[in-house]
Amino acid sequence: MSETTLVLIKPGGVKRNLIGEITRRIEQRGLNVVGLKLMRAPRELVEAHYAEHQGKGFFEDVVNYLCSGPVVAMAIQGPNAVKAIRTMMGATNPIEATPGSVRGDFALSIDDNLTHSSSDPEAAANELALWFPEGIVS
Ligand code: CMP
Fold it and tell me: What domain range includes position 9?
């Protein structure tokens, strides 16, 4: 079933010039980029994005981090895109990420795990509405 999901390349990934590498992997897999922008995310957007983590010890830090520099927001579409992307990015904690995944190949720290991707189709719909209020190309 075709799905659309959100991928963010976090400030660390942008700084390390990994935009091309991550996008190449997504396209090579056969998934389609249907939304793409480089932006400095406003704090209100990031707080809404991480609303499920509000109250957790790491909330302030992850919000500050995502606001600390430019991010790439992408809408990605294709068969089972939500799960396909999550698997490609690897476990949230890069130490547990499988080699061959983005985190398994390029990251070591949970605080700088390079990307965010939607956890399920419902989260994807909510996150896409936040990051692409203007809609996507389909
Ligand atoms: P992300 O997928 O963007 O969602 C929340 C982020 O919080 C997560 O990736 C990590 O970068 C960060 N984070 C920091 N500490 C933790 C933790 N203990 N559990 C989950 N996420 C964490």
Answer: 2-131
